[in-house]
Design goal:
With 217 residues, the chain is of the alpha/beta class. The chain is built from seven helices and ten strands.
Length: 217
């Protein structure tokens, strides 16, 4: 369960987010839309533990992780979160198999125990035959599929996607969104997609709009 209560964040004394409330159960996949500059990425960074709130609470499975120290927060992100970035962040010096296995390596899983799940996810995204290729040989759509596989390989409780199709053409974008939605639902994870695109948002189970007054159906 993800529980966000009265969440707030300020920059230079100016409120960017105030009074954000959201409650999501495993298996729920929501999209958050809103105008540019309203705080969508700020909200996602807070939920991801990449930024600290100025007020309110963030609870995942009962743990208020907005108040954890840096080491504990790093462990929580490593074990329970998967993040799909707009810019992919696929590491060029690792093969596709190694990129996808990376979250498992960070948990201390190595060898066949990491390669097996990595290959399964690469197969799920249609790239198993290229497991030992380098990222430089991929298209943008293929790199985003690798990023999705990497975000899901360790079976995170919470999957976050920040404009994951912003750098893709419409056809590849549609494929990536369908894959992301399917894998979140199959894994019974909690999924949050932040996007400016209503077409992308429509792939989620429900859509929430963020504005200066909070989150609204």
């Amino acid at each position: 369960m993800l529980e966000i209560s009265a969440l707030s964040r300020h920059f230079n004394g100016r409120p960017v987010l105030a009074g954000i409330d959201l409650r999501l159960a495993p298996g729920e996949y929501v999209a958050i839309v809103g105008e540019s500059g309203v705080g969508k990425s700020t909200l996602l960074n807070l939920v991801a533990g990449l930024d600290r709130p100025d007020g309110g609470s963030l609870r995942l499975d009962g743990v208020d992780y907005g108040r954890l120290d840096d080491d504990a927060l790093t462990r929580l992100r490593r074990d329970k979160l998967g993040f799909v970035f707009q810019a992919f962040h696929v590491l060029p010096h690792l093969t596709l198999r190694q990129n996808v296995a990376l979250p498992l390596w960070l948990q201390g899983v190595a060898g066949a125990a990491a390669d097996g799940p990595a290959l399964q996810l690469l197969d799920a995204v249609g790239l198993a035959s290229r497991a030992d290729d380098w990222p430089r040989t991929l298209s943008g759509g293929e790199m985003q599929r690798v990023a999705i596989a990497r975000a899901l390989v360790h079976r995170p409780r919470l999957v976050l996607a920040d404009e994951p199709t912003g750098n893709l053409d419409p056809a590849n974008g549609a494929r990536v969104l369908a894959l992301l939605a399917a894998r979140i639902r199959e894994a019974g994870a909690i999924g949050i997609l932040v996007t400016h695109s209503l077409e992308a948002a429509a792939t989620a189970d429900r859509v929430l709009r963020l504005d200066a007054t909070g989150l609204h159906p």
